[in-house]
Amino acid sequence: MPRRISRALQTLSVFALSLAISGCIGTSGIAPQGKALEANSLATDEAIQRAAQDANWPTAQWWQVYGDPQLNHWIDLALQGSPTMAMAAARVRQARSMAGIAESAESLQINAQSTLKRHNWPTDQFYGPGELANTTTWDNNAALGLSYALDLWGRERNASERAVDLAHMSAAEARQAQLELQNNIVRAYIELSLHYAQRDIVGATLKQQKQILELAQKRLDAGIGTHFEVSQVETPLPETHRQLDALDEEIALSRNQLAALAGFGPGNGAQLQRPTLSLGTALKLPSALPAQLLGQRPDVVASRWQVAAQARGISVAHAGFYPNVDLVGSLGYMATGGGALEFLTGKKLNYSVGPAISLPIFDGGRLRAQLGEASAGYDIAVARYNQTLVNALKSISDQLIRRESMDKQQTFAAESVAAAQKTYDIAIIAYQRGLTDYLNVLNAQTLLFKQQQVQQQVQAARLGAHAELVTALGGGLGAGADVPTASKTAAPQTPALLRILSN
Questions:
Q1: Same domain, 381 and 483
Q2: Mostly located where (predicted)?
Q3: Quick check: is 18 in a domain?
């Protein structure tokens, strides 16, 4: 038999023996059990299931529908200077760097090292009374090491793909942080506008109370009124002043909140002017809300990437059951004695090259535990994705219900204010003509004030519900190509060879 064929058979025998030995560690009984839900199986709301003729809604700048330039400018400032966004961006860069580290393991690794040292050679049983005994000479060397992972079972490839999936997940989480920041600013801005509107109501009430006080004083001076009437008119004035002061406090606190959300100090918040958005702004919804919008939600996308990453983790754990084969080599020079740089002349050159094989034989259950951990991690990721999907659908349905209710409540609140205003006007006229006492005027005024406050609160809640609905639909932050495919999110199957070895 030719020597070359003999060596080939020996190599093949060693490889086959390696596979057989790896079979000592089986994977039976360890497999993921989680199954991802389908959005269509959960979406029962007709508004979510209708045709996607308005699939471009909402837009990325959805807050511009409120028509307030100051709000637009403030959100732009927040996205640039918020510590929350800075942390999210840093996490994305960190994840990308980790992916780069994982990908580097698939490339050729070359390392070089060199040492120059003086060495004293004693006379002992190791060196003996040889030529170098009791001398001090140069003992220098230089080496170049090379290694390359063959990655026969895809361990390194899946590890790098897993790191890339985690980087995609971090990017989706950054978009989620951006969406939450936008929503928080819009809601705080609506609250600021509400406080100003309520202050207008209280201020108008105070003005009317003062006018009635003047009228009561004139009636007293003319002899047709009483001191009791004047006292009744004066009684609510301190409470109205207190309400004005409380609303001034709420306005200042809302400014501080907006400044903090944007990453600024309270001084910047004090520069905020009164919002120009109207609490009665007409907000339109598209005729249909496409179910595809659900897949664009950043939290849903992030959960899907986590499932994909965990699936890669199972493949990495599976590869650990196979022999690992690397190509390694080295090239070096060394010199003992002579000049300091004599080793560079190449007189004492040495090199080595060949495969390095590591065999998993018995490890106390480490590999099975790692595979079990990866499978459980996949199931956790799938369960988290399913819960995120359920919560997303619930949030959309809740906000649709709330938005429809707010529209109806706004109509009823407007009717209540109109009726209360009519009652108050009648009471004022009757009081001026001496047909009723001030108590009826005070009751009518209190009712009008309460109904106006309710109307403003309903209008603010309606604007807030719109913001929540847009947020629930992903805020226009389309994922685009940054979405894992079905093949990436599915649990990997056990390789046929590994199933044979594990039986």
A1: yes
A2: membrane
A3: no
